[in-house]
């Protein structure tokens, strides 16, 4: 049968794309696709433009997904996921993205597309360069890996601080506060019901486990560092997202402790490797090593 195209239908296709990403994951993420927990996190983040989900494109053959073209949180981005035998769809998928996933620049109101292409895919890089795209180095999305040690070392904490999880202490106001402050918002966060619902939605996703959402508790009882953690059992890997430390408590090793505790718990479940989508020196100091860069190539279309 020939490859056919159709638009994404969220209810039926969300789990099918999840299964596609899991089925074609290669050890060390050498497939170059998104790992499945990133797909899950995308769909339950408060920043998601859910009204545009129908613009995601799906290619199928014999009723099975072979490629997906999608944005992450908003239009203007394009990410490309492939069955290993269907990379020749690159040009068709880029055509689709240019026609359906463009955004409007906040700077000058121009229509644009940021196409994310792995630096391990020279044919795709040649394609976007030939189409007039230019690399935006600031938009690079790195993927790093951490191989779990055996035995897992002890995780130190300053005196008076302790580790917990949302399975043990689920307080969405504390989660909201540490993430608000940890991502450098000024002042105290708004504690409306809607804000707390959004926080819960981010972390109580369909496959999430509260025992893998790790917090560091200060002597006063506040959450002062937090690490969201996902575990994918078929691929036996962990995924770190997000991590935040209250600025009043930085440089104490608290964020590192939260990350390592989440990874350690995933290791007890069977994880052999952990991934993070960041090249911050914070992660490199823990021991994460680069797998590849997903480079952002930008083109203005008007």
Description:
This protein has two domains: 145 residues, Gcn5-related N-acetyltransferase (GNAT) (Aminopeptidase, 3-Layer(aba) Sandwich), CATH 3.40.630; 110 residues, Aminopeptidase, CATH 3.40.630. The protein contains eight helices and 13 strands. Strands 1, 2, 3, 4, 5, 6, 7, 8, 9, 10, 11, 12 and 13 form a 13-stranded mixed sheet that branches. The model has no long low-confidence stretch (mean pLDDT 97).
Strand percentage lies at 25-35%
> Mind telling me the C-alpha Rg?
20 Å
Shape: globular
Summarize the helix and strand pattern as letters.
Answer: EHHEEEHEEHEEHHEEEHEHE
Count of individual beta strands: 13
> N- to C-terminal separation?
37 Å
Task: Extract low-pLDDT stretches.
Answer: none
CATH topology of the largest domain: Aminopeptidase
SS summary, helix count = 8
Count of distinct structural domains: 2
Instruction: Name the CATH superfamily assignment of the largest domain.
Output: Gcn5-related N-acetyltransferase (GNAT)
The CATH architecture of the largest domain would be: 3-Layer(aba) Sandwich
CATH class value of the largest domain: Alpha Beta
Short description:
The chain is of the alpha+beta class and 302 residues long. Helices cover 28% and strands 29% of the residues. The longest helix has 16 residues, at 254-269.
Keywords:
alpha+beta; 8 helices; Aminopeptidase; 28% helix; 13-stranded mixed beta sheet; 302 residues; 2 domains
């Amino acid at each position: 049968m020939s490859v056919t195209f159709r638009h994404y239908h969220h209810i039926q296709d969300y789990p099918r794309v999840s299964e596609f990403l899991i089925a074609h994951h290669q050890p060390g993420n050498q497939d170059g696709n998104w790992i499945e927990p990133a797909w899950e996190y995308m769909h339950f983040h408060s920043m998601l433009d859910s009204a545009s989900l129908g613009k995601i494109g799906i290619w199928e053959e014999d009723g099975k997904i072979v490629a997906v073209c999608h944005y992450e949180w908003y239009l203007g981005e394009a990410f490309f996921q492939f069955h290993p035998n269907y990379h020749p769809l690159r040009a068709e998928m880029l055509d689709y993205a240019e026609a359906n996933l463009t955004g409007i620049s906040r700077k000058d109101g121009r229509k644009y597309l940021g196409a994310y292409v792995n630096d391990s895919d020279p044919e795709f890089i040649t394609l976007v360069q030939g189409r007039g795209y230019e690399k935006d180095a600031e938009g690079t999305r790195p993927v790093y890996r951490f191989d779990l040690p055996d035995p897992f070392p002890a995780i130190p904490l300053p005196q008076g601080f302790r580790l917990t999880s949302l399975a043990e202490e689920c307080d969405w106001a504390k989660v909201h506060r540490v993430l608000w402050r940890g991502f450098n918002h000024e002042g105290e966060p708004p504690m409306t019901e809607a804000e707390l619902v959004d926080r819960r939605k981010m972390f109580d996703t369909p496959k999430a486990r509260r025992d893998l959402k790790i917090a560091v508790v200060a002597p006063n009882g506040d959450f002062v560092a937090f690490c969201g953690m996902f575990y994918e059992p078929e691929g036996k890997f962990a995924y770190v997202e997000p991590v935040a430390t209250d600025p009043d408590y930085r440089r104490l090793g608290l964020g590192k402790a939260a990350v390592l505790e989440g990874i350690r718990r995933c290791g007890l479940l069977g994880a052999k490797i952990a991934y993070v989508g960041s090249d911050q020196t914070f992660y490199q100091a823990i021991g994460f090593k680069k797998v590849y860069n997903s480079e952002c190539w930008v083109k203005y279309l008007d």
